[in-house]
Amino acid sequence: MEVFYYVVFGVLSIVVAALELSKNNKDRINTSSAFTSFKNNYLVVYSLMMAGDWLQGPYVYYLYSTYGFSKGEIGQLFIAGFGSSMLFGTIVGSLADKQGRKRACVTYCITYILSCITKHSPQYKVLMVGRVLGGIATSLLFSSFESWLVAEHNKRGFEQQWLSLTFSKAVFFGNGLVAIIAGLFGNLLVHSFSLGPVAPFDAAACFLAIGMAVILSSWSENYGDPSENKDLITQFRGAAVAIASDEKIALLGAIQSLFEGSMYTFVFLWTPALSPNDEEIPHGFIFATFMLASMLGSSLASRLLARSAPRVESYMQIVFLVSAASLLLPIIMASVVAPSQVKGGGITFAGCFQLLGFCIFEACVGLFWPSIMKMRSQYIPEEARSTIMNFFRIPLNIFVCVVLYNVNAFAITTMFGMCSVFLFVASILQRRLMMIVDKPKANDWTPLSERNTEEDPLNI
């Protein structure tokens, strides 16, 4: 079955290369040299930031296990990370609108570097502090950089359509190519150079430090609403009012939480799904294959976003339906193929089909990221962008914590079925968003400074 892995990887590589090389004028966006320089600077920084994140991922569990911690103790560390992202990360991330997005991006670098340093200690309490810091950094990574980009893009007067080009390239490189290279580099450090499981964390800290230097030397500061008289509670209340008073923002938040919740659950499930009887599978190579599938999705997204039709609100309905169908494969295979009772060996025939389905899901992930970024740039108000984006992550983190805590309580097919239902609901909500997107903006959120306290009892 080893040939199967190479065939899948090879076919995906050819398709991605063909998509990139066959782009014509309709698939490309004509831009200016000033924008190209701005875009490339952001892509360098974002790729360095994602390298710092991807290098750590495959080795967190492994590092904890080498320190002698049990599965339960490791689970508690992971829950602490997501819980920290939900509680502390929401607060710190929301400060970006008031204190500055550049400053928040630098804070991400410092926080994640400190988290990497804690990995040198085998002490459980020190590692717990590292997980808390890592949770805060995650919230900053997925809100502050995008908020800075959108504000800076608009401040420099670039065309709105050009923003989608930066989004798609950021996903192609940062969430695809960099992930593959980081996985191979981490494997080189740990296994080829025998530097131990802490080496990828040291390398991640170096990449983060380089990225921080680029930010400090080349980025300008921008803010959401820097009003001096607005405290954090006021920001939170303003974000809540924005979400409650604009159905588009509320729908966007629900769609994001449903998809990302399913995506993070998939991260925990794909290994036991492909090796239910401890079959030997090349985890690193499969991970690289998934990232290649994600690159395929982001390449498709760049073509779609470069055109006026179909609209992002339209084609994302299909993306959610396809992703829901792809995660039904483990359930279908369990019902039509008798489970093997043989321990060990290579991947089974059912596992091969599931792997293909998982690659389709990862392609949908590659389509999702630039598309959701595009919609967020359109519908989330600038003055509270970081705060609202961190609000969106609260239900996501709650969901992931619940899944982690109960991961052994449900059958794996039940978990995949739940994810498929969530993705189907996301498609329905996306349909609703498309239906209302062209309606008059009578209920859209207005800046807090323009609200009339006598007419609006929710005014703050």
User: How many strands, what sense, and barrel or not for the largest sheet?
Assistant: none
Strand content: under 5%
Kindly report the average pLDDT value.
87
Distance between the termini: 62 Å
Count the strands?
Answer: 0
Helix content: over 70%
Protein name: Molybdate-anion transporter
Function: Mediates high-affinity intracellular uptake of the rare oligo-element molybdenum.
InterPro entries: MFS_trans_sf, MOT2/MFSD5
Main location: membrane
Can you characterise this structure?
- The chain is an all-alpha fold and 460 residues long.
- Helices cover 75% and strands 0% of the residues.
- It contains 18 helices and no strands.
- Helix 4 crosses helix 7, helix 6 runs antiparallel to helix 7 and helix 9 packs antiparallel against helix 13.
- The radius of gyration is 22 Å and the shape is globular.
- The protein starts with a helix and ends in a 24-residue tail after the last helix.
- The C terminus is likely disordered.
Question: Strands, helices and their partners?
Answer:
Elements: H1 2-21, H2 33-54, H3 60-66, H4 71-94, H5 96-99, H6 101-118, H7 124-141, H8 144-155, H9 160-192, H10 199-218, H11 232-245, H12 247-274, H13 283-305, H14 312-326, H15 329-336, H16 349-379, H17 385-405, H18 412-436
Helix pairs in contact: 1-13, 2-9, 2-10, 4-7, 4-17, 6-7, 6-8, 6-10, 9-13, 9-16, 11-12, 12-16, 12-17, 12-18, 13-16, 14-16, 14-18, 15-16
Question: Short description, anyone?
Answer:
The chain crosses the membrane at residues 6-22, 43-62, 74-96, 170-189, 201-219, 285-306, 318-338, 344-368, 388-405, 411-429. The chain is an all-alpha fold.
